[in-house]
Design brief:
This protein has about 290 residues and is mainly α. It is built from eight helices and two strands; from the N terminus they run H-E-E-H-H-H-H-H-H-H. The two termini are about 30 Å apart. Keywords: Membrane, Signal, Transmembrane, Transmembrane helix.
Length: about 290
């Protein structure tokens, strides 16, 4: 009961703060419009110049707005649904809740460390901290010792785990394709850095999220207890994050930027992640139930 109360309160606060942050990002306006600046590295960068993201570049600000729409109209409702489901002592509900909280945790980690400073700084900070503690509590509420017994013997752990491994390697190679060539030709700094401090997304992906995807997939294929814990959570997180990434690509396309082949690959990965999430949840038995 203590778990339910604390996670319910934390999740409710996340929903309120996320609605404020995402609404502000999606609907704020005002500003000088686009203009050019010279970065400290001597590169010319076109700045978005409107709304809360007015100091972001024209390549990045529309992506943030697109993700705000996904947060507002997909992630927040899913957080409410998964919370209500988890409160009924549903193991599936707790997995869905953990994966959704993982999305908020990673999203506002990125917003906090990459977004140019704005009036939402303290809200981003609160969302990061509250999402972290709610996420950890939800993970710890799942009984690891008997978790493998809740999965059907026919659960396709090989291809489900294999996809997580493939996802980590494919995206990792894509990001290395951004980072490595400038190191080889002596220019060192990729053009994607623009006027930011560093490659935040690529760094956190390569250092944390992609290795986690690889490990979760490998342990799931090996039918290890932590694999049964991490893989479902990662699949749900990946489903929401890839939906946000799809929205970002569409936003870039609407601005006339080249989005091939990403407009084909990313939605495909999103669909696979969603199908995998549904398949995993369907193969989990709830307390008091046994598999046929």
């Amino acid at each position: 009961m203590r778990y339910k109360k604390s996670v319910t309160i934390l999740s409710a606060v996340i929903m309120v703060l996320a609605i404020i942050a995402a609404s502000t990002g999606a609907f704020s306006s005002g500003g000088p419009g686009t203009y050019e600046i010279e970065s400290v590295r001597g590169e010319v960068v076109t700045v978005y110049g409107e709304g809360i993201y007015k100091h972001m570049s024209v390549d990045v600000a529309p992506q943030g707005i697109a993700q705000d729409y996904i947060t507002l109209f997909v992630a927040v409702p899913l957080l409410l649904i998964s919370l209500l489901w988890a409160r009924k002592n549903s193991v599936r509900g707790r997995f869905l809740l953990a994966g959704t909280l993982g999305y908020f945790l990673v999203t506002y980690l990125f917003y906090l460390v990459m977004g140019m400073y704005n009036i939402l700084f303290l809200i981003y900070t609160a969302l990061l901290g509250i999402s972290f503690f709610a996420f950890v509590q939800t993970l710890l509420s799942i009984d690891l010792s008997s978790l493998s017994e809740r999965f059907r013997a026919s659960t396709p752990v090989k291809w489900l785990g294999g996809f997580l491994i493939f996802n980590s390697m494919a995206i990792g190679m894509m990001w290395l394709g951004v980072v490595v060539p400038p190191l080889l030709d002596g220019s060192v700094i990729p053009v994607q850095v623009e006027h930011y401090t560093t490659l935040i997304v690529q760094g956190l992906d390569l250092g944390l999220l992609l290795p986690l995807s690889f490990v979760a997939g490998l342990l799931f294929m090996q039918k290890r207890p932590f694999g049964y814990l991490l893989a479902p959570v990662y699949y749900i997180f990946l489903s929401i994050m890839m939906a946000a990434l799809t929205a970002k690509i569409i936003a870039m396309g609407m601005l006339g930027q080249s989005i091939m082949p990403a407009i084909v690959i990313i939605p495909l990965v999103s669909i696979i992640a969603i199908v995998g999430s549904v398949l995993i949840l369907k193969n989990i038995a709830e307390p008091g139930h046994t598999h046929p």
